[in-house]
Amino acid sequence: MAGEAILSFAGEIQKQIQADGHELSSLHLDEATSNKLDSYLSHLPVSTSTSYPSIRRRLDHAGTELWNSCTQRMTNCSEPTSSVVLCKVKAFAWAMLDTAISNRSLGSFRVLKTAYKLVKTCIEHGCVAISLKVIEAVAMRLDALEHLETDVDKARLRQCNVHYYALRVHLAWLQGRSDIADHLFLKLPESITGDTCVLDLCFKVGSSALSCSQYDVAAKWLGRGLEQCKLLASSSEGSDVPLQDKELLILHALVRANTHLDTHDSKDNLVRTLGHLKSQYSNMFSIRLLELEVLARENRDVERYFQVLQDALKVMDASESSFRMCG
């Protein structure tokens, strides 16, 4: 596909996006444009068969403009169908950037960073098929980067690999392939200091499994997330409030998962995790409520139940922040 043809098509889409009006929440492409867009996306990565610097610069510029237009429209878009259209257009814009930058260029880091943003956006809007296409193209670029003869920032490359495998794990999970998700998780580059990206991944998968009543799977992924919390905490200096908030959410979910399991390990984990929550967050109503839920399931020690209930009433705070985890 010639570079000029891609640039011409990008111009057509840009006009339709602008003509549709930024003040409108919905977006619709005409049928011919929509079909052509789908055709381009089915052949990712897009190839222009050109090495002319002038064409590459124009692809970079036009792709960036189209990407920014979509990003701006998405901030005001609440209509699901329009969001899907914008995801497709963003994918095409990214394909232009991907084409503009050589696989053997250090500019690949910018392309990869943009790709990861795109995949996350597509996942949020249910466009898993597009995410899979993009992640396939990312794999080729990562492989080329790893085999560059010039010096490459190893730490930066490692982080790109972390994001790549984290997204692949998430996509495998969304496709219902927990076995593949487990396999890919083992391919994540290890870190003695932990990784926020991996922590967030574990919480997403664990929370999803919990909501689907897959309690053993939830406990496994939330446990992995808790390990990341510990590594990150041990390597951080001073108090890390965002990390503490994530740890609280993971511990809370981990207790809920283990209450539904009936193994020796799960019971030990339940006692240990709930004990940690009580020692660190005893003044939170949601934690007292969680303890009541555990006691109710055990169906014993009525006196203890009413004592915890009294404690819960003492610390109850009717603010939104106190109730946000009670559901």
Automatic annotation (TrEMBL):
It holds the Pfam family SPO22. It comes from the Eukaryota. One of its GO terms (biological process) is meiotic cell cycle. The keyword RNA-binding does not apply. The keyword Signal does not apply. Keywords: Meiosis. This is Protein ZIP4 homolog. The lineage of its organism: Eukaryota, Fungi, Dikarya, Ascomycota, Pezizomycotina.
